């Protein structure tokens, strides 16, 4: 009887493995090496391999939940894209990076939008204070989406402010990612719910102890207030962002506050992310019926800054973010300066940077010396040697650098939630702003130079002095990082 049960169990495991492998081959569009690697893992360690795939693999294909908001977005795009393209063609001789804007219009369906005001935050304290002030001044609606909301003082302050406004009759909606906020107690949000605020999780776990897999996380950070003020960037909500955790001090980050036309795009994206995870159909109907309240009319005052917002996620047919960043680095003519907490590029992005450096372009990459994840940090440091050998300057920031920025040629800048890794490029829901204004690029260049004062410039001596154990870890973690 026992032998029969064991044989049946093995048959079931092999059947599940085979079904998963066939699904990867025929349903997914991943790189062949990715499918081959997982096939080998599930073949040689069947049960454990399948569990690892559930937890870290790209997992089941996420079905897109279509709503009326898709029609709104498509209609606005179709009504605007043609005249934007005509307008841009008239500027061809004045703007050498026009092909990138056109690429975003065509490939990402990202319209050029204006920001009347654009405030860059390099410090969470200033961002939190500005955000709370804007929340407390809200008159109609507050929409909040974060990857992480901690159950600490920072999280409590945010929920207290939102609760106060909900009690005053302001419509409050909040989305938080169940994976990023895995350790946050549900009790944190109870006062907001009791005050009438709507709180939902993105892609919640069926089993709390297992939390599904770590993919398909909503890594965006979006706040929209009264449809007129928007926030986005790299900062979540937590005390560590205020450098209150000695392990991650100082903490450096990048976030943005905007007003003007661009807020419309942030509002639409929030509503699409929100309606994708809500279960109350009455709330969806309320949004549809009163949609105009979330998009107040703006005057036509000329915007100070033009930018394009690019959104990506596993519900998209294309890897928008990956293609966009590859296009971004291949346009550079003089310099590429990058700040990222994690640097685990795919082969195309890495080769693009190497080719740029060998072409005489000044490529600088700044990463933190402090790891918040040992696995990810070792995978990141595994790239240092080949970057240095390609002539790329690599800096270790003496603290935790969470800023996700890039500047090319000192003229164009990008800020967002996107890390320079496979997960951000292909798996998570992300947001990046590509900004066409030298003043913003100048701010980020000056910030990079200031951060260099806290950095150590690496050279091949550092690589040669690595222990054999560290090199072994880097090799193994780099291989595994391509699967997760």
UniProtKB/TrEMBL annotation:
It is an enzyme of class 2 (transferase). The active site is at 219, 221, 226, 402, 404, 409. Residues 214-241, 397-424 form the PLD phosphodiesterase domain. Its EC number is 2.7.8.-. This is Cardiolipin synthase. The keyword Cytoplasm does not apply. CDD domains: PLDc_CLS_1, PLDc_CLS_2. SUPFAM superfamilies: Phospholipase D/nuclease. Signal peptide: none annotated. SMART domains: PLDc. NCBIfam families: bac_cardiolipin.
């Amino acid at each position: 009887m026992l032998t029969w049960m064991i044989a049946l169990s093995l048959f079931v495991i092999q059947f599940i493995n085979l079904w998963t492998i066939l699904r990867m081959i025929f349903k997914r569009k991943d790189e062949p090496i990715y499918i081959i690697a997982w096939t080998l893992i599930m073949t040689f360690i069947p049960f454990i391999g399948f569990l690892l795939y559930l937890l870290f693999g790209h997992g089941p294909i996420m079905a897109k939940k279509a709503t009326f908001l898709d029609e709104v977005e498509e209609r606005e795009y179709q009504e605007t894209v043609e005249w934007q393209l005509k307008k841009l063609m008239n500027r061809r001789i004045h703007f050498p990076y026009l092909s990138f804007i056109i690429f975003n219009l065509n490939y990402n369906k990202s319209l050029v939008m204006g920001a009347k005001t654009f405030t860059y935050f390099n410090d969470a304290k200033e961002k939190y204070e500005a955000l709370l002030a804007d929340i407390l001044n809200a008159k109609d609606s507050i929409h909040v989406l974060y990857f992480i909301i901690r159950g600490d003082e920072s999280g409590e302050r945010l929920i207290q402010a939102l609760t106060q406004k909900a009690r005053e009759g302001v419509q409050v909606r909040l989305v938080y990612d169940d994976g990023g906020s895995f350790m946050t107690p549900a009790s944190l949000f109870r006062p907001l719910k009791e005050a009438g605020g709507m709180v939902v999780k993105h892609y919640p776990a069926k089993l709390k102890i297992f939390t599904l897999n770590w993919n398909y996380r909503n890594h965006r950070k979006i706040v929209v207030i009264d449809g007129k003020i928007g926030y986005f960037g790299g900062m979540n909500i937590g005390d560590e962002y205020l450098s209150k955790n000695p392990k991650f001090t100082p903490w450096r980050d990048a976030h943005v506050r905007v007003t003007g036309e661009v807020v419309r795009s942030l509002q639409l994206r929030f509503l699409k992310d929100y309606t994708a995870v809500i279960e109350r159909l009455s709330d969806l109907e309320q949004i549809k019926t009163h949609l105009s309240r979330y998009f107040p009319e703006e005057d036509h005052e000329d915007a100070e800054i033009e930018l394009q917002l690019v959104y990506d996620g596993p519900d998209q047919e294309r890897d928008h973010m990956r293609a966009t960043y590859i296009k971004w680095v291949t346009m550079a003519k003089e310099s590429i300066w990058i700040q990222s907490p994690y640097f685990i590029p795919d082969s195309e992005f890495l080769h693009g940077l190497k080719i740029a450096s060998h072409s005489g372009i000044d490529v600088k990459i700044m990463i933190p010396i402090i790891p918040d994840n040992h696995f990810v940090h070792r995978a990141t440091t595994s790239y240092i040697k080949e970057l240095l050998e390609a002539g790329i300057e690599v800096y270790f920031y003496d603290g935790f650098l969470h800023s996700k920025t890039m500047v090319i040629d000192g003229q164009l800048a990008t800020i967002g939630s996107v890390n320079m890794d496979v997960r951000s490029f292909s798996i998570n829901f992300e947001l990046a702003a590509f900004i066409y204004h030298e003043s913003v690029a100048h701010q980020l260049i000056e910030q990079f130079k200031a951060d260099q004062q806290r950095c150590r410039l690496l050279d091949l001596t550092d690589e040669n002095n690595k222990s054999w154990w560290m090199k072994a870890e880097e090799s193994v973690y780099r291989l595994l990082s391509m699967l997760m």
